[in-house]
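Look over both lines:
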Amino acid sequence: MIIDLRNIKKLIISILIPLLVGGLSGYITMDSMELYKDLIKPSFAPPGYIFGIIWPILYVLMGIASYRVWKYGDDRREVKSALKFYAIQLILNFLWPIIYFNLGLRGFALIWIILLLIFVIITTLKFYKIDKVAGILMIPYVLWLMFATVLNYYTWILNK
């Protein structure tokens, strides 16, 4: 990907936004992460450290994808719509760990993550219509959320 130097600021902002959202959410839930170790988890649950590797990668991919859409101009209706859905999914993403870890509402967190997944899929499709690469960059996030949804379901069922 060739980056126009005039837009490097947009790229940095685009990457920093999801990283900061995820970082803040992680900071808020840091003390509750110990509880995850004590949960009964399904056999396919990855070790805790994997989440610390996967999420930053996904946030960077999200940021690059949003940059690729943003550079088309936020005055275009389809770009505004795509970025609005992107912002909503970021808010949903920010709140899910608080609901799941801090509040321990795993059943409600399951509904929340399904809502998040729906918004991410819509965002991905909107991104793809504007910039195919942006849409493709969102696919790992969609796949990870599908996995996280199944994991959320099983940890809820196993720990009722």
Summary: The chain has a mean pLDDT of 94. The helical segments are 8-29, 33-38, 48-70, 77-102, 106-130, 132-158. The chain has one domain: 5-37+47-158.
